[in-house]
Specification:
Layout lengths: L2 H12 L4 E2 H8 L4 H14 L5 E6 L2 E6 L19 H13 L2 E2 H8 L5 H9 L3 E6 L7 E5 L1 H6 L11 H6 L6 H17 L11
Antiparallel strand pairs: 1-3, 2-3, 4-6, 5-6
Helix pairs in contact: 1-3, 2-3, 4-6, 5-9
């Protein structure tokens, strides 16, 4: 193992949170980002058959327990983070259509969304406020976080199941039609001079 790989290994073991290749290059001072990425891939191969793995989630690298050994490290009484059905639906809608406003989420779900549901998702670190929609009322819009990808073992949102698979569960049926209708209404509202202020829904 060369000096760069050893330095990356040490940095990642000491890091309090996952790090990008660029952040690692900056941490090491004079390392080139391309060299760091190549060294990280080599380290990942080195750890493939060991008790811990070096993995990349949302472009950030960290060590984690090998999946087949995870059961050895679980506490006797495991605390699982459980989401209500409403929170699960809202999280899925945000993940597939981000960034979205609360009014858009409600249009897709067909029911009102409690502010507490969004609070739960933000407290979990899976959803964040991503700004405001540039339409009348400027509603707040929401998006997922890198922690969401990391928790569910996704490298990017491209790894999410297809809409057809999601619809088959009955969770978001019919997402596509509702969302297209919503977007058409948003354009019409944006062009109208007397469009209502929907900030109270954001």
């Amino acid at each position: 193992m060369d000096d760069l790989s050893r330095a990356l290994e040490a940095a990642l073991f000491a890091a309090e949170e996952p790090m990008t290749a660029e952040a690692l290059a900056g941490f090491l001072g004079d390392a080139a980002s391309g060299d760091v990425r190549e060294a990280l891939r080599g380290l990942a191969e080195h750890y493939e058959e060991r008790g811990i793995r070096l993995v990349e989630r949302a472009k950030r690298w960290h060590f984690e327990t090998a999946p087949d050994l995870a059961h050895l490290l679980r506490r006797e009484k495991e605390q699982l983070r459980r989401l209500s059905r409403a929170a699960t639906e809202v999280l899925a809608i945000i993940a597939y259509h981000e960034p979205v406003s609360r009014a858009e989420i409600e249009s897709i779900r067909g029911v009102q969304t409690s502010g507490g549901t969004l609070d739960v998702l933000m407290e979990a670190g899976w959803v964040k406020i991503a700004g405001r929609r540039e339409v009348p009322g400027r509603p707040t819009i929401y998006a997922t976080t890198p922690e969401f990808l990391e928790h569910f073992g996704l490298n990017s949102r491209r790894d999410l199941p297809g809409i057809a698979e999601l619809r088959a569960t009955g969770l978001l049926d019919p997402v596509d039609d509702a969302y297209e209708d919503l977007m058409g209404e948003a354009v019409t509202d944006g062009e109208a001079e007397d469009a209502p202020d929907d900030s109270s829904l954001a």
